[in-house]
Amino acid sequence: MRTSLRSVRGARSALALLAAGALALSVAGCGDSGSDGGAPPGGIRHTVQLPKLSGQKLKVTAVWTGAEQKGFTKVLEEFSRRTGAEVAYVPSGDDMSAFVGSKIAGGDPPDVAMLQQPGALREFAQKGWLKPLGSEASAELDKNFTKGWQDLGSYEGKHYGVYFKVSNKSLVWYNTKVFEGAGAKEPKTWPEFLSTAQLIADYGIPPVSVGGADGWTLTDWFENVYLSQAGPEKYDLLAQHRIPWTDPSVKDALTVLGRLFGGKGLLADGNDGALQTQFPTSVTQTFTGGEEPKAAMVFEGDFAAANVIGAGARIGKEAKVFPFPAVGAKAPVVTGGDVGVALKDGPAAQALLTFLASADAAQVWAGQGGFLSANKNLDLAAYPDDTLRSIARAVIAAGDGFRFDMSDLAPASFGGKPGQGEWKDLQDFLKDPGDVAGTQRKLESDAAKAFKS
């Protein structure tokens, strides 16, 4: 499982900048099930039938606090309004596995939990902690999600989870003022990306900001290059350690990445400086309001928007975004996400999972911002701006060609701990981008130990 640093990465750490504390809250049902179709107050359409659950209580846990907790609370309020159920939300803290394990040991697990990694779902299913999706939830899942998302929420052929909130981790955010000054355009391929970077460097501003102090950002760089260049089938094999990290496909990806990391003047503050830069700073220093930025571009997922806004930039104005450039035949779509699972039997838990699998639930949060859905039947008009619509469209358009964050699929000792495994090995690579073979040997040694244990 992931460490607390891993748990608060991405949207957790970014949105926390905008958030308040995290106290347990209750969402009391007001008795209006509203399950007869049409648009209720607030304009949320009813595309799924939900049962009457007046008098029933439901406890839900997730790592979300602050802005994310507020968004999810709106979803739970809509569920409560339509069913009459009383829903209590309790933040789990960073270590979901420890939280759920302690509750199960105490005989009082939550009814529904929102897990962050596929590995957690598999672990919980192996331990017998999870209840399979009922027929209604399974039908809603099948209607609204591609097989790839369904499979991520399954274990040994059974559906256990609904991927309700996802992230698109194949994005490059850029400072429009720098691009205009340098005469740069949005690149579509890796050679164009490197040419654009050089054009901006010649203009006098470092082109790329890298948050190398947080090793997970480097795994995201590698995963996007590898997925596009090697393809989804190879990606799956490497993610399962069915091919070694000494494979030629890994050499090819590291070589490509090394052309950026080893390029003269291409990284803000150079390689040593990038290794001292944390993720939030890598974003904000690209969009310093009024001052000359330290870089023109920064790579990371849709969750970087919170940091962009925190730097005083307006998305769609001073800050824009383009898809990660294609290294191979297709541009990559690497994702993350939170999956809802039932830890207790009962109609209320199953009804909530049915609701989370519907376009209705996704529409509630999408309209507030800070949310992305893989639900293919969610009207993109539900998102508040064109930038979010384009990011969401890329996830849907990927169909089953997307791949989940590879380091989230790996054992934590390899893919999810600072100062060791893949994080440390890629930080060493950032320090010495020419040592491809040595990096491969270290990655393979660490992966072999982690997967064996």
TrEMBL record:
PANTHER family membership: ARABINOSE-BINDING PROTEIN-RELATED, OSMOPROTECTIVE COMPOUNDS-BINDING PROTEIN GGTB
Source species of the chain: Streptomyces klenkii
Keywords noted in UniProt: Signal, Transport
Domain of life: Bacteria
Signal peptide (residue range): 1-24
Record keyword Signal present: yes
Entry similarity comment: Belongs to the bacterial solute-binding protein 1 family.
Pfam families from the UniProt entry: SBP_bac_1
PROSITE patterns per record: PROKAR_LIPOPROTEIN
InterPro entries: Bact_solute-bd_prot1, SBP
Protein name, UniProt field: Carbohydrate ABC transporter substrate-binding protein
UniProt entry tagged with the keyword Signal: yes
